[in-house]
Design goal:
The protein is an all-alpha fold. It has twelve helices and no strands.
Length: about 300
């Protein structure tokens, strides 16, 4: 995620880090070359009576803008839902620790063990969504027998939920939690499972490929042929105008791809590492564990991951 302080509008025009310009620079260069070809070959293909007008491009440009706007709305909705799910996960984690500290004030060492399971669960969910290995993080947070049990499971997140449920069940069996308290605390575990299922749904159900493909192809075909429609009227200004129009359409196309997969590692994706660290800091502080790890900060390119 890009985290920048407010800037003057003029300086924002020249921002490089945080924009998608770096991803489409080569494609804009190809469009510039195509524009130069259109300018150099204009008299030749006009002599052959080959002429493109702006009329079909105007209609097609409006249609592409509508489709890109809809696609970006869908992608941003996925991004927003993913952020809300991680927000609900943080609420449930804090509520679990707060409830246990309130009803089991003498069991702080055991609550710290439970908090370690919660923190490991958060990191495992991040690794699952990003398709990375959670081994190092799990071994850092949990004792080796428990870490081995989690890492050998085909679904580490579900295994950690089961271990947390068993921990609560043991407290209930020992008479430390009444049925009413157990039910209330268990509801927060269910909220964790609900947030996990929502994240898995977003990660495993991308925007329909056929819809993405037709928009992608149309945008690139439009940008490729655009210089030949502009050159009869603009002549030597064709490269400038064509690259500017192509920048708008290509940027929207790339941005929709990034937002449509909010759990990735692109600059505009969710900062899952920072969210996991925030959960770890909050739960450790609630369990009186010191010193706390530092919060993650944006790097020199203003990217918080």
């Amino acid at each position: 995620m890009i985290v920048r302080s407010p800037q003057h509008w003029f300086f924002r025009l020249f921002v490089w880090h945080g924009s998608v310009l770096a991803n489409i620079l080569f494609r804009l260069f190809l469009n510039l070359l195509m524009s130069l070809v259109a300018v150099l070959c204009f008299q030749w293909y006009e002599a052959l009576n080959i002429r493109l007008t702006l009329a079909p491009f105007s209609l097609l440009g409006i249609a592409i803008a509508i489709f890109l706007g809809f696609r970006n709305s869908v992608s941003y909705a996925r991004f927003t839902e993913a952020r809300q799910l991680w927000g609900s996960l943080l609420v449930a984690q804090r509520a679990l620790t707060r409830q246990l500290r309130a009803v089991l004030p003498e069991a702080l060492p055991a609550i710290r063990q439970f908090a370690a399971l919660q923190i490991a669960y958060t990191y495992c969910l991040k690794h699952q969504l990003r398709g990375t290995a959670p081994g190092g993080t799990v071994r850092r947070l949990l004792p080796e027998p428990v870490a081995r049990q989690v890492l050998t499971s085909p679904s580490p997140c579900n295994r950690l939920l089961l271990l947390m449920g068993q921990w609560l069940g043991a407290r209930r069996a020992a008479g430390e939690l009444s049925d009413m308290l157990y039910h209330g605390i268990d509801q927060n575990l269910t909220q964790l499972a609900t947030a996990q299922a929502g994240c898995e749904r977003i990660a495993n159900t991308p925007i329909p490929f056929a819809y993405t493909l037709i928009v992608h192809r149309t945008v690139y075909l439009f940008c490729t042929l655009l210089p030949f429609a502009l050159v009869p009227d603009l002549h030597y200004m064709t490269p400038l105008v064509s690259v500017f129009i192509s920048y708008t359409f290509l940027s929207l196309d790339i941005l929709a791809e990034e937002l449509g997969e909010p759990f990735g590692t692109e600059p505009n994706d969710l900062p899952l590492n920072a969210m996991c660290r925030a959960v770890e800091i909050d739960l450790l502080e609630m369990c009186d564990v010191m010193p706390l790890p530092p919060r993650r900060r944006p790097d020199r390119h203003y990217i918080l991951n």
